[in-house]
Protein: Amino acid ABC transporter ATP-binding protein
Organism: Citricoccus alkalitolerans
Amino acid sequence: MNGSQTGTARGAAGAALATPVLEVVGLRKQFGDHTALDGIDLTVNEGEVVAILGPSGSGKSTLVRCIDQLETIDGGAMYLDGDLLGFEQGRTLRPLTDAGVRAQRRRMSMVFQQFNLFPHWTVLRNVTEAPIAVHGVPSAQAKEAARGLLEKVGLSDKADAYPRQLSGGQQQRVAIARAVAVEPRVLLFDEPTSALDPELIDEVLQTMKALAASGRTMVVVTHEMEFAREVADRCVFMAEGRVIEDRPADEFFRAPETDRLRSFLARSM
Ligand code: ADP
Ligand code: MG
């Protein structure tokens, strides 16, 4: 339960009060005739780490891409801190203006499988660009914050390096620092270790684990079962565009309710 310690408000009796940060309700997404998301409901509370697991093609990437507004949606609604996300009130399913979408996207950031660093910029510039250009943070302040983040991900000596001079694991840690630099309400990860050589996976998972322990709200699509079991508060199992199980991580692994999850776990662990 690493994530919920610092991020969750506590009531008078000391009990955790769940504050929803992200709410997805009946989300639908079509690609032509193919239904990629078939009515997804998902709530992510403040400080929670939610792992999304499921077979290839089950809609995991589509879900986080819809949340990050990289895809339009065909039905349902999403809310960030209670604000309807990406689509105007009244379920007209018309996209917000570009400016509206940009304003909302600033409150989330995504870490991709392929890092997606800007190759012609130094590590420091990769991390400071969005805070300076999008959020209007003064350059000196953004650089100081970025150096602090690079230290946290173990790369304080790489500020002036270019992405091609780094290993995949180092590049992904820069991408994580970049995602955190904008102080997002929700950090989204889409299989952040799947493109890495096996010996580089652990350094990235350790970085993510530290983020979770610091109280970040995170949605993590992953195949790393150990990571999900240790770090996630909740695990969501998807198949064919639906949520099949959504449970506290320990129950999810110890006592899966469906045959589908049982056989998935048997194959994956
Ligand atoms: P996962 O990440 O769980 O492997 P995806 O979300 O990538 O699954 O894909 C879900 C389904 O949607 C798959 O059948 C995939 O082929 C399809 N799909 C994903 N993106 C597109 C796209 N841009 N165009 C058409 N079909 C897509
Ligand atoms: Mg995927």
